[in-house]
Write a structure and sequence with these properties.
It is built from twelve helices and seven strands. Strands 1, 2, 3, 4, 5, 6 and 7 form a seven-stranded mixed sheet that branches. Helices cover about 45% and strands about 10% of the residues. The chain has two domains: about 10-170, P-loop containing nucleotide triphosphate hydrolases (Rossmann fold, 3-Layer(aba) Sandwich), CATH 3.40.50.300; about 195-285, Conserved Hypothetical Protein Ylqf, Chain: A, domain 2 (Orthogonal Bundle), CATH 1.10.1580. The protein is of the alpha/beta class. Helix 2 links the parallel strand 1 and strand 2 (about 55-60). Helix 7 crosses helix 8 (about 195-210) and helix 8 (about 195-210) crosses helix 9. The structure holds guanosine-5'-diphosphate (GDP) and magnesium ion (MG). The site of magnesium ion (MG) has 2 residues, from helix 6.
């Protein structure tokens, strides 16, 4: 069970987007490349209407590249939306983004035109601040973590025709689908106190055993994938010395270890959602299943 920490955020997020809408020419929605469905919030799509949007699939260094490509095709074909896999921590990988922004808003951002006003938006922890910092680089002296001097969001002049809001737009994660919420928790997007580590880790072990058995076996030197997730965690704990006195496996430590290593990319490049999973999720949401 994942506890919803975000009641009340909806109103605030909605008000923020509505207020900014007339001042923004293009939104960059930052998603987690490992789970583009569950790290999104449909509110932006509803409120932005025809205003251009780029979906950044961030942390693509942690995601399965084949599946990330499938997501790019999915957004292109299903929604006519450009998605760009990125590593916000890496300046080179972010370099394509301004070009794509200018392409999507042809009447702004070029020489002799008005600047192109861009806002980065997304749920917590997807890498919004990292992306802003990497885009801004050393071009401007930013205030950093000091309290804002004015209450107005400041704009950063990227000196390439683009004005970037220095405060990202905030969306809250949608946690009413427990499976999606579990994937968010596994990815590290949710505060530790809001979920049950053991339950999320068991789900993760189960998922990895099904989708990435080779990576799981290799990382933890498993002869074979155990029959169930509890046994998998036990085996991982044994292999990695998560033991209590008496030699029994400390399942909680094993659970934490698995999640930590997943998040750190230690097990390999792993995507938690594929576009083909989404039809199933949507059917569930529409009540056609279960
Ligand atoms: N591996 C990886 N980590 C990233 C990437 N971008 C951001 N992060 C990490 O994700 C965490 C959250 O980033 P942050 O920018 O604070 O997210 P925000 O809450 O959306 O502003 C930080 O630990 C970042 O270092 C990326 O492309 N790859
Ligand atoms: Mg931030």
């Amino acid at each position: 069970m994942i506890i919803d920490w975000y009641p009340g955020h909806m109103k605030k997020a909605r008000a923020q987007i509505v207020e900014m809408l007339p001042l923004i020419d293009l939104f960059i929605e930052v998603l987690d490349a490992r789970l583009p469905h569950s790290s999104s919030n449909p509110l932006l799509g509803k409120l932005r209407k025809d205003k251009p949007c780029i979906k950044v699939l961030n942390k693509s260094d942690l995601a399965d590249p084949t599946i990330t490509n499938a997501w790019v095709n999915h957004f292109d074909k299903q929604q006519g939306i450009k998605a760009l896999p990125l590593e916000a921590t890496d300046r080179r990988s972010v370099g394509l983004l301004p070009k794509l922004c200018r392409k999507l808003v042809p009447n702004r951002g070029q020489k002799g035109q008005k600047p192109l006003r861009v806002m980065i938006i997304g749920i917590p922890n997807v890498g919004k601040s990292t992306l802003i910092n990497t885009l801004a680089g050393k071009k401007i002296a930013r205030v950093g973590d000091k309290p804002a001097i004015t209450t107005c969001p400041q704009q950063i002049d990227l000196r390439n025709g683009i004005l970037l809001s220095d405060t990202p737009g905030l969306l809250w994660p949608v946690l009413d689908d427990q499976a999606g919420a579990g994937r968010l928790a596994a990815s590290g997007a949710i505060g530790e106190n809001a979920y049950d580590t053991a339950a999320v880790s068991l789900e993760t072990a189960n998922f990895l055993g099904e989708r990435y058995p080779d990576l799981l076996q290799k990382r933890y030197k498993l002869q074979e994938i155990p029959a169930n997730a509890t046994e998998t965690l036990e085996e991982i704990g044994r292999r990695r010395g998560c033991l209590v006195s008496g030699g029994e496996v400390d399942l909680h430590r094993a659970a934490e270890l698995l999640l930590r290593e997943l998040r750190g990319g230690k097990i390999g490049r792993i995507s938690l959602e594929r576009p083909t999973d989404i039809r199933i999720i949507e059917e569930k949401e529409n009540g056609n299943e279960e």
